[in-house]
Amino acid sequence: MSLLCLSDTAVEGATIWENIKGVFQVNSPHSPTLRILIAHDLESATLEVQGKYRLFDPHDEEHIGTRFIGKKQRIEALGDGLKWGEAFPGIHQLTFVPAQPKTRIALDGVEYPGTLTIYDVGGTISVVNEVLIEELLKIVLPQSYPQAQIDELCAAIAIAARTNAYYDHDHPRNKFWDVTASALQYQGVAHPSAIWNKALEETKYMVMSSTSAYEKVVTPFPVDWHPDGQAEEMAKKGLHAAQILAQAFPGKSIQIADGPRAE
Hints:
Blueprint: E1 3-5, H1 16-23, E2 33-42, E3 44-50, E4 53-57, E5 62-67, E6 71-78, E7 81-84, E8 86-89, E9 93-98, E10 104-107, E11 110-112, E12 115-121, E13 124-132, H2 133-144, H3 151-170, E14 179-180, H4 181-184, H5 194-202, E15 206-209, H6 229-236, H7 241-248, E16 253-256
Parallel strand pairs: 2-14
Antiparallel strand pairs: 1-16, 2-13, 3-6, 3-10, 4-5, 4-9, 6-7, 7-8, 9-12, 10-11, 12-13, 15-16
Helix pairs in contact: 2-3, 3-5, 3-7
């Protein structure tokens, strides 16, 4: 577990990531996923898969099969199971997993990364999209902050947004999903943004924590932060993301989220 305190000092000309690597031994953590409820209480929906994919029943993690040719059909809940062109008797939930990087999954014309799970809930369907947090942030941040263009301000926003995403992951709203699409302003796959990709790469796996590294636990907390003019001015003056966040979140630390997290 690595740490950078949120203070008003920083190494001249270095990014936060470089500061951390220069002082601490940084492991290579893996991004967790977030389960996002993207649709609820639908009579049916059009589900399209392009490319090779695998089908699982998440109830018992049974591998139903691997399909090499995609298709586009209405998916709906029947009395004895789901139907997507073909019927799946006795199966009331289906997870669609891309089997190749080029595989695409879309619901009602909107493409989503990661996996899609369809649930039969009392005769209607609900849909959950599970996606890596790092990939999710590449989508939602350009949509949520289209005017942000200063590198260090974008880096500060990235850390704050990642902190909130880790909190959502650790505190799911439901047994089957962590957060709703509306809460994230999430609308599926979007065009990539060079400035946001850079900000996310330079702050990769960094979150704010209510506890320090000395306590040997990372404690992300809920963050609903919309930078004000002061944060933008700090970025324009060349202050680092850690300094910007220290102003907004005094007493917090920045940690690499590879250690145990508080329950």
